[in-house]
Write a structure and sequence with these properties.
single chain, Deoxyribonuclease I, Chain A, Endonuclease/exonuclease/phosphatase domain-containing protein, 14 strands, alpha+beta, 495 residues, 40% helix, 18% strand, six-stranded mixed beta sheet, globular
Length: 495
C-alpha cells in the first residue's frame, strides 16, 4: 500500500533539510568529442525517447523510479528527453547512472523559481533534462510568455518557469536541432479536454510561442521536438506547430492509431484519469538533393516501462508512458511505392493520417509520397496557415477575457477586504465593538487585501498584457499571410 501524501512530504522535507542520504554530484558533461571516420558517417542510428518522469519529490517512489528510469534507457537509446525531473536529488541520480551507461553528454535546463520549501539552494529547475550519447555543442532556453500563476503553488507550473529548450547535438551525420518542452497542465476534472479547462488559452499561447521560437532558431537538416504537450493529437496546441512548421508526428506516421501515454489501464498511477496521448516526438527533415544520403524515420512506438519494486510489485516508471522513435541517416532507399508500376499519388496527409484506409507506402519518409504531397500550392498552404492562425487568435481572445475577469474579481476582493479591515478598525476606535480580537481581524483583512492587490496589479495585469501581445503577434502573422495570398492571386491572374 502506498504511503499517504502527508507522510511522503514529511519524509522528503526531513531528508532534504538534514541532508540525509545525499546523492553525489555527477561528473560534468564530457568536453571531448569522438573522432568519427567516413564509415561512421555512412549509416547513423538515432533512437530517441521522450518521457515525462513524474519526478515530483513527493510522488510515490520518486527516487526509486528515477534510478530505474536511468537503468531502463541504458542500451536502447542515443537521445533521451525527460520532463519533470524537478529536484536536484533525482536529477543527479539519473545523470550519474546514465553516465555509466554511455550517456556522457547531458544538459539540464535550470532557470526556474522552484517550490518554496527548504530543500536546498538551486535545487529545483524546469524539469527538462536531456541525456545524449552524442556531443551537445550548445544550449538555449526560452521562457514562455504565459507560464501559470504564482499563487497556484499546487499546480507547480509557474514555479517551473515553463518554456522550450534548444540543444545542438553533433552526430556523425552532422548537427541536428533538438527541442524539448512541457506545456501547462490541464486541471480539469480527470484532465478532460473541453469546458472547464481554464488553461487552454495559455497552452495555445505557449504552442504559438514554441512555434515562433523554433522558426527563429531552427537551422539544421533534422529537427526533433519532444515533450509533454498536455494535449491530444487533434488539439489546436498540436496543430499549430504541425501546420505552421510542417512538423510531423513520428508516432502517427508509423501507426494507424493515436496511441496512449496517459491514463492507460496498464498504469496504476494514472488509470482513471482521461486517457490520451499527450507525449510526442515530432520531427522535420529538410530534403537534400536527390541521390544524397539523408535522415529517415524508421519506426515509432509507445515506451511502456516497468520495474519490480522492493515489495515485488510490478510498478510503472512514471504515471506517463513515453514515446520512442528511431531515425537513421543513410543512402537513399528504394521505396515500396516506387517498386509498383501503378502506385497511387497521394498527399503526405493521407500517408500519415491514422484514419486513412490504406497507406500507399509504408515507408514514412518516402521520397515519392513526400514530393507529391508538396504539390500543394503555396496559396493553399498560406490559406491553411491563416486558418490555423485565426483559431489561435480566437483562443487567445478567450484566454484574455478570462484573465480580465479574474483580474476584476480579485480587485473587488481587495477592495472588499480593505473595507472590512477599515470597518473593524473604526468600530474598535469608536468603542462600538471592543474586542481583543479586533486588531487580529484588522491585520488579517489587511493582509488579504494587500495580497489580492499585488496579485491583481503585478501578475494578472501582466497576464492580460501578455495575451494582448501574443494576439498582436498573431495579427502581424495573419497580415503577412494575407499579403502573400494576395500576391499569389495577382500573379495567377496575370498568367
Amino acid at each position: 500500500m502506498e504511503e499517504h501524501v502527508v507522510e511522503r512530504i514529511r519524509q522528503r522535507v526531513l531528508l532534504e533539510v538534514f541532508n540525509l542520504d545525499p546523492v553525489a554530484t555527477p561528473a560534468p558533461s564530457r568536453a571531448e568529442w569522438p573522432l568519427w571516420t567516413e564509415q561512421d558517417k555512412q549509416h547513423v542510428k538515432l533512437r530517441v525517447l521522450s518521457l515525462n518522469a513524474w519526478g515530483l519529490p513527493v510522488a510515490p517512489k520518486c527516487t526509486e523510479r528515477a534510478a530505474e528510469i536511468a537503468s531502463a534507457i541504458s542500451s536502447d537509446f542515443e537521445l533521451v528527453v525527460l520532463q519533470e525531473i524537478w529536484h536536484l536529488r533525482e536529477r543527479n541520480l539519473v545523470i550519474s547512472k546514465a553516465q555509466t551507461n554511455g550517456f556522457h553528454y547531458y544538459h539540464y535546463f535550470n532557470p526556474a523559481v522552484g517550490f518554496p520549501f527548504p530543500m536546498g539552494a538551486d535545487s529545483f529547475g524546469t524539469g527538462l533534462l536531456v541525456l545524449s550519447k552524442f556531443p551537445i555543442s550548445s544550449a538555449l532556453y526560452h521562457s514562455f510568455s504565459l507560464s501559470g500563476r504564482p499563487y497556484a503553488l499546487h499546480e507547480s507550473d509557474f514555479v517551473a518557469n515553463k518554456g522550450v529548450g534548444l540543444l545542438r547535438v553533433e552526430t556523425p551525420a552532422g548537427q541536428i536541432d533538438v527541442y524539448v518542452t512541457h506545456l501547462l497542465a490541464n486541471y480539469n476534472v480527470g484532465g478532460k479536454p473541453g469546458p472547464g479547462d481554464f488553461y487552454r488559452g495559455h497552452r495555445t499561447g505557449q504552442s504559438y510561442d514554441l512555434t515562433q521560437f523554433i522558426s527563429a532558431t531552427n537551422r539544421n537538416n533534422l529537427t526533433i521536438v519532444c515533450g509533454d504537450f498536455n494535449s491530444s493529437p487533434d488539439c489546436l496546441e498540436l496543430r499549430v506547430p504541425k501546420q505552421l512548421l510542417s512538423l510531423r508526428d513520428a508516432y502517427t506516421d508509423t501507426n494507424d492509431e493515436d496511441g496512449l501515454t496517459f491514463a492507460s489501464p496498464e498504469n496504476k498511477y494514472s488509470h482513471g484519469e482521461h486517457p490520451m496521448r499527450m507525449d510526442y516526438v515530432m520531427y522535420k527533415i529538410d530534403k537534400r538533393p536527390k541521390g544524397e544520403s539523408d535522415w529517415h524515420l524508421v519506426e515509432s512506438s509507445i515506451f511502456k516501462g516497468f520495474f519490480t519494486d522492493a515489495r515485488g510489485e510490478k510498478t510503472p516508471l512514471s504515471d506517463h508512458f513515453g514515446v520512442k522513435a528511431e531515425f537513421v541517416f543513410s543512402e537513399p532507399r528504394v521505396h515500396v511505392c516506387e517498386q509498383q508500376e501503378d502506385y497511387a499519388v497521394v498527399s503526405t496527409d493521407e500517408v500519415a493520417s491514422p484514419n486513412g484506409t490504406e497507406r500507399s507506402c509504408p515507408t514514412t519518409t518516402c521520397a515519392h509520397c513526400d514530393e507529391t504531397g508538396m504539390e500543394q500550392s503555396d496559396e493553399d498552404k498560406a490559406t491553411a496557415d491563416a486558418a490555423c492562425l485565426q483559431e489561435v487568435q480566437e483562443m487567445l481572445f478567450i484566454g484574455r477575457n478570462e484573465a480580465i475577469a479574474a483580474r476584476h474579481m480579485r480587485l473587488w476582493r481587495a477592495v472588499a477586504f480593505f473595507v472590512a479591515a477599515l470597518a473593524v478598525f473604526v468600530t474598535h476606535m469608536m468603542s462600538i465593538v471592543v474586542s481583543r480580537w479586533s486588531w487580529v481581524a484588522v491585520l488579517l483583512f489587511g493582509m488579504i487585501s494587500v495580497t489580492e492587490y499585488v496579485l491583481t496589479f503585478f501578475f494578472l495585469t501582466f497576464e492580460c498584457s501578455t495575451f494582448t501581445e501574443l494576439i498582436n503577434q498573431v495579427q502581424l502573422h495573419l497580415h503577412l499571410h494575407a499579403h502573400r495570398i494576395e500576391g499569389m492571386v495577382q500573379a495567377k491572374a496575370e498568367k
